[in-house]
Design a protein that fits this description.
The protein has 14 helices and no strands. It is mostly helical. The longest helix is centred in the last third of the chain and has 51 residues.
């Protein structure tokens, strides 16, 4: 019988528009802060430090990075306020969102006493989270100042753990976890959010930085080749976190494959999965097609060809990834419950040894496949370079014979 006809099934209702918009904005702000600081720390900063590029290219990228991170701070502060107001509206019975935006209502929520059985008030946790967000935003917004930009690395590296803490503080429950499932769900949800923010925010920062190509010299190709190579590792870790946590969340969300098209929440999840796979496909194009060509260009023509590949072709594909990532964030705002609950009214069964074994096996398989992907990309790059070298050698050996 169709799941919709089950007496215990729940009916999907579209979340209020204010809830969808505030959640979307919050994830955009969090992505900008987490992804921007992670990418600066793990990609841009080391690439600029080890670059042999002399002149204004490094200063141009540092200045553009600082301005981008400063705007990320503004975005985080604004979107976090609207998200906090949305949380206040959801906590009050029938409270309009316009009323929840009142600072007085927000403060009353943040300072409300703990509920019976709770070890800490829920509002207190949100208060700590938003204090961290304010500190993170302040550090990043300071980068609008030319004087503060001289301390770009110090400010960004200080903001990085704070941005992560702002997201991961939701791991702390107001009351003890009732079950192991609840604990695991909380861990995987936060890992999913942190990984997705690092991935999408990092992509967004790099395409913004790539927009400065008209201000860069022809030698910037070598620098950007190193930047894209380094980001490949960050993306690999982020994708791994998203996929491994996503396996758990998908199992919690759906009870059978058919629920992906027989329930509204399932269809939303299916759309999200397709968009994520699209992002991965675009990333695969970069890893298996562009990166080998970049490696070849470094050997053959380290100026014009590298600039063309690293600052024209590569950003175009990354823009596609960013657009798909924004689509993922939009899809998330439509969730209201789970496909399981919508189809049958049930929740996921308790975790047992069999489920944990299957999960660990899938996670290890996924980790192995991601590692193999990275190795395959490196192998393709080396093969391109070796083939080019062999061709060049053969041509040089043929010249005397032709002359004779």
């Amino acid at each position: 019988m169709n799941a919709y006809l089950n007496a215990s099934a729940t009916v999907y209702t579209l979340p209020p528009l204010w809830q969808m918009l505030s959640l979307f904005g919050y994830f955009v702000g969090l992505s900008a802060a987490i992804g921007g600081t992670v990418t600066h720390a793990a990609v841009v900063r080391p690439a600029l430090r080890t670059s042999g590029n002399e002149g204004g290219d490094i200063e141009t990228l540092r200045r553009r990075t600082a301005i981008s991170l400063a705007w990320a701070g503004v975005l985080l502060a604004v979107t976090a306020y609207f998200q906090l107001a949305a949380r206040v509206a959801r906590s009050g019975k029938g409270m309009p969102y316009s009323e929840a935006l009142d600072p007085g209502q927000i403060w009353a929520f943040l300072t409300a006493p703990a509920k019976p059985g709770s070890w800490v008030a829920e509002g207190t946790l949100f208060l700590v989270q938003n204090i961290i967000i304010v500190l993170t935003s302040a550090l990043l917004i300071a980068l609008f100042s030319p004087l503060a930009r001289r301390r770009l690395d110090r400010l960004a590296l200080t903001a990085l753990p704070l941005a992560l803490a702002a997201a991961l503080i939701r791991l702390v429950p107001p009351a003890p976890f009732a079950t192991t499932d609840a604990l695991l769900s909380k861990i995987f949800i936060q890992a999913h959010i942190a990984g997705a923010c690092a991935w999408l925010g990092g992509l967004a920062l790099l395409v913004v930085l790539a927009g400065s190509r008209r201000s860069l010299s022809d030698r910037a190709g070598l620098l950007w080749a190193d930047i894209w190579r380094r980001f490949g590792f960050v993306a690999l870790i982020s994708v791994g976190a998203v996929l491994i946590s996503g396996l758990w969340l998908a199992w919690q969300h759906i009870g059978s494959i058919s629920q992906l098209w027989t329930t509204t929440n399932g269809a939303i999840l299916l759309v999200k999965l397709v968009l994520v796979l699209g992002m991965m496909a675009a990333g695969a194009v970069n890893e298996f097609w562009l990166m080998p060509r970049i490696a070849l260009a470094r050997q053959a023509d380290p100026d014009v060809s590298l600039v063309h590949l690293t600052l024209r072709h590569f950003p175009r594909i990354v823009w596609t990834e960013v657009a798909l990532g924004v689509g993922v964030l939009v899809a998330i705002t439509f969730f209201n419950g789970t496909a399981r609950a919508e189809a049958t009214g049930d929740v996921a069964p308790p975790v047992d040894a069999g489920i944990i074994t299957v999960g660990v096996a899938l996670a290890l398989t996924l980790a192995a496949s991601l590692y193999a992907t990275a190795k395959a990309s490196d192998a393709l790059a080396r093969r391109e370079v070796a083939a080019h070298a062999a061709t060049a050698t053969a041509r040089r050996e043929e010249v005397p014979q032709d002359v004779a």
